[in-house]
Amino acid sequence: MGPESKIEKLKALYRLHDDFMAGRKLACRPGCHTCCTRDLTATTLEGLFLILHCRRTGRRDLIRRLEAELEPGFRPRLTINGLAKACLESEQVPEEVLGSGKHPCPLLEDGLCAAYPARPLGCRAMASAETCPPNGAALMDPLVLTVNTVFQQVVEQLDLPGFFGNLADVIRFLNDGRHGPAYQEGRSVIGKAFKLAPNQPAAVLMVPPEHRAGIRPVLEKMGEVLALEGG
Ligand code: SF4
To answer: pLDDT tens digit string along 137-157?
Structure first.
């Protein structure tokens, strides 16, 4: 499957996630942006969708802003499916060095996201049941956390054999003259130089027993999205 088909599926998954979130009671409102930091992560497919969106809307400057973040903050060593596999196989999970959460995302403009329709799942997943205190954490409903995790697992699998990492690193990788075209043509590339982790298949979906019933309708719709055009 080429990148165009994958992006269509990604968009359908984003819509499905939006629909799920629309049914929850959330405190998030336009203009609140405590969670919009440069620690943001994404898959390469999401980075490609963001680049295409910025080109189409005449906002290439946003991509240049991201590329300029040479020390962007959180750089995950493991993908979410890598973490699931390590837990399943009782492997030692490498310790992650978390970002400070203090530096604003380069795409913020006057408290709003300048690329909102193409924001990655990491942004869509941040949703608080109560208004976040200044510099405080979001209050996440446990079922929302599970659904977000499964969406991340599915998006990662869709982007095989792509990569996952800090959004700024993902954008630099995609705009690199050698790696970007190779990724889009499905050729074998290595993301290590860009501090990216290779995506992995979802060996198991991380759904605790108490959320199996609650997530079932979402999983059924996900199955329909992924089955489109033989995905
Ligand atoms: S991409 Fe947009 S929604 Fe995501 S962290 Fe940056 S400003 Fe916030």
So the answer is: 778 889 999 999 999 999 999
